[in-house]
Amino acid sequence: MLLGHQFGRLVLLSEALTHRSAAGAKGVGSNERLEFIGDRVLGLIVAEWLIERFPAEQEGKLGPRLAALVSKPTLARIAEEHGVAEMIAVAPGEAKRGVSAQATVLADALEAMIGALYLDAGLDAARAFVRRVMHSLVDEQATPPKDPKTALQEWALKRALALPAYSVVAQSGPSHAPRFVVRAHVGEAWAEAEGSAKRAAEQEAARKLLETLPE
Fold first, then answer.
1. Does 122 score more than 90 pLDDT?
2. In angstroms, rounded to a whole number, what is the distance separating the alpha carbons of residues 206 and 68?
3. Is the pLDDT of residue 193 over 80?
4. Could you give the percent of the chain with pLDDT greater than 70?
């Protein structure tokens, strides 16, 4: 088992692997609630780990490290490497569209699994899992990465353009598990991304936009 844990409450694991499309009315029984808590647990575990691993660094360097490690692309990469897509329950129509292989769905499922592990066995079990699947990524961070919003701002400044702007173009989901679609603009270029928090969506939109811009 990927999580390395025998669940006392199997319903938690089942819920963590249930996409909204396969849940009941209004998403009841989906992994959105567990993703909500898993996101916070993951952030705490990684922040604690970075403080331990880089004792001489201050927030200015630790922040970008944390943002990169808990970003949707990073979590989706981990989930893909461990076959999480095959574990997610989705509605038949969504399955045909390949929804379970989408980056946001994979990342959300991984966060939900961390949330389920935390609720079933506590912080130590969640910490052991996170450190096991992310240790190589932390090892790769020889220097602090530059977060996408900062990189996009520097790109604009070098070209004497107005600073990037961000706008929420859509919001959905219940108050305890909202979803935001944010658009990042710089010059005439723009890109959109979705996230469970505005800042996360802004970072992902900036990252997507950077991929389309010239060096």
1. yes
2. 13
3. yes
4. 97
111 in catalytic set: yes
Q: What is the largest CA-CA distance in the chain?
A: 58
Residue 98's nearest CA partner among 177, 19, 181, 1 is 19
Task: Summarize pLDDT for 158-180 with one digit per residue, the tens.
Answer: 999 999 999 999 998 777 668 89
Contact status, residue 167 vs residue 159, Cβ threshold 8 Å: no
* Helices 72-81, 198-212: crossing angle, 10 deg rounding: 80
Q: How far is CA 39 from the centre of its chain?
A: 7
Question: Is 39 an active-site residue?
Answer: yes
> What does the pLDDT read at residue 116?
96
Catalytic residue among 15, 39, 108, 202: 39
- At 94-111, the pLDDT tens digits run 888 888 888 889 999 999
Catalytic one of 111, 147, 194, 204: 111
Nearest to 104 by CA among 119, 116, 88: 88
Give φ, ψ of 186 to 5 degrees. -150, 125
**Tokens encoding 70:** 């808990």
pTM: 0.74
56-to-51, 52, 60, 135, 143 alpha-carbon distances in Å: 9, 9, 12, 20, 13
